[in-house]
Design goal:
The complex is a heterodimer. Chain A is mainly beta. Chain A has a six-stranded antiparallel β-barrel. Chain B contains one helix and nine strands; from the N terminus they run ββββββαβββ. In chain B, the strands form two sheets. A seven-stranded antiparallel sheet of chain B has the order 2-1-7-8-9-6-3. A two-stranded antiparallel ribbon of chain B has the order 4-5. Chain B is globular. The mean pLDDT of chain B is about 95. The chains are: A mainly beta, B mainly beta. At the A-B interface, β1 and β6 of A face β2, β7, β8 and β9 of B. β1 of chain A pairs parallel with β2 of chain B.
């Protein structure tokens, strides 16, 4: 069974700081896709970033943002 | 290695066997039973009872509180092709989880003196696995 989860809201955090607020997101076999609602450009450029969903924290690798779409690897 | 408190458990659940799972709301616990069938093969002269091992009979339970945002559990219970489940012991360790497709049953309790609760149970529909 492929790993496929999704949600309506999430956050990207750099340490304690909010780097981006995300809308609809999916993780499919470790590939993250999400819509960016708002972001802090400086914090989004920092590493490591963590995807936070309802208290669950997924370390994010290879993050890329194009327009309001973010893709990455968790 | 780490040890975890149950306060941070997470359940992701789809509403059908082909659907994408989402985090369920207002659950307060889950269990997963990975017991295998055992068949006794004790024979004359054995010094103790002996068994051979059969297949895992994967099944589990969950419980929580009735929540308008968590009614997808009941949609999943109605699914004709089961649901996809991901069970996390702790949100602090997103790489550790059990997963598989399951048949889901759900029930509600509405006591006059307490909170509305939901309970449920599931059995494997297909092979289950564990990460890592």
């Amino acid at each position: 069974m492929a790993f496929r989860v999704q949600g309506a809201t999430a956050e990207l955090r750099w340490g304690y700081y909010l780097a981006a607020r995300l809308g609809a997101w999916t993780i499919e076999d470790q590939a993250l896709r999400a819509t960016v609602i708002e972001r802090d450009t400086f914090r989004m450029a920092q590493r490591p970033l963590v995807l936070v969903v309802a208290g669950q924290r997924w370390p994010v690798e290879r993050l890329e943002v194009i327009d309001d779409q973010v893709t990455g690897w968790v | 290695m780490a040890r975890y408190h149950g306060k941070s458990g997470v359940v992701y659940l789809s509403t059908s066997g082909s659907g994408v799972a989402t985090a369920t709301t207002s659950l307060s616990g889950w269990t997963l039973d990975l017991s295998t069938d055992k068949v006794e093969v004790t024979s004359f002269g054995d010094l103790n009872k002996t068994y051979v091992q059969g297949l895992k009979d994967i099944k589990g339970t969950f419980q929580g509180f009735l929540d308008d945002a968590g009614l997808s559990l009941f949609t999943g219970a109605d699914s004709a092709d089961g649901v996809n489940m991901y069970l996390y012991p702790s949100s602090a360790s997103p790489s550790v989880y059990w997963y598989g497709t399951a048949w889901l049953d759900a029930s509600i309790a509405v006591p006059v003196g307490g909170a509305n609760t939901l309970t449920g149970n599931f059995v494997a529909k297909a092979s289950w696995g564990r990460k890592p």
